[in-house]
Amino acid sequence: MNGPIKEIPSWRASGSLFENCNCTGICPGHIHFSNDCSHERCIGYWAIQIDSGFFGDTDLSGVQCVVAFDSPQRMIDGKWTEAIIVDREVSEEQLIALEAILTGSVGGPWEVLDRFVAKRLPTKQLPIKIVREQNIEKLKVGNIMESVVTPLPGTHNNVPVTIENMFNQIHGSSQIVAQGETKYSDGTITIDTSGTHALISRFNWEMVDK
Fold first, then answer.
1. Which conformational region is residue 195 in: left (phi greater than 0), alpha (psi within -120 to 50 degrees), or beta?
2. pLDDT, tens digit, for every residue of 105-143?
């Protein structure tokens, strides 16, 4: 991880976000960290596509990254292990910005999640490819991860099931309910899911001087 930011700049990031973990149905920890998840460990990831954003003078548009996690069944108990993976094509300035945002060291929603993280693995830079095909999210990260997140069809098959007006630190309030299939291993965190909890949403994070 890069050194601490000496002076916190204004920053903003908006784009798309999807996740998959090993919980059955909708992850209880997603509703609130005080709920018990489906298994002894809740293990999953968040995939992030920044469509537009900045960190001081650094443009973040088009940047992709992934955060993998391994947490206790009751996520609010803390002791999470977390790994940040950033696309290999980002600049040094973008890497510094993303690490600062995703570790919560510059405020914003990830500052709240950082309270629960006990162990951070070294940030990796690997090729990241996110492809959206008919609302299906496909993710490949180097040779350590492949994932497919598929929305659940509602009453009308072309309109997915959604959660509305749902508060979550990093997701938008409107979220598409989905199922995910993921294979991931970095030597510490291993994700192996099929037909388990997944969500897709938009996000808008910021820490801007008024």
1. left
2. 999 999 999 999 999 999 999 999 999 998 899 999 999
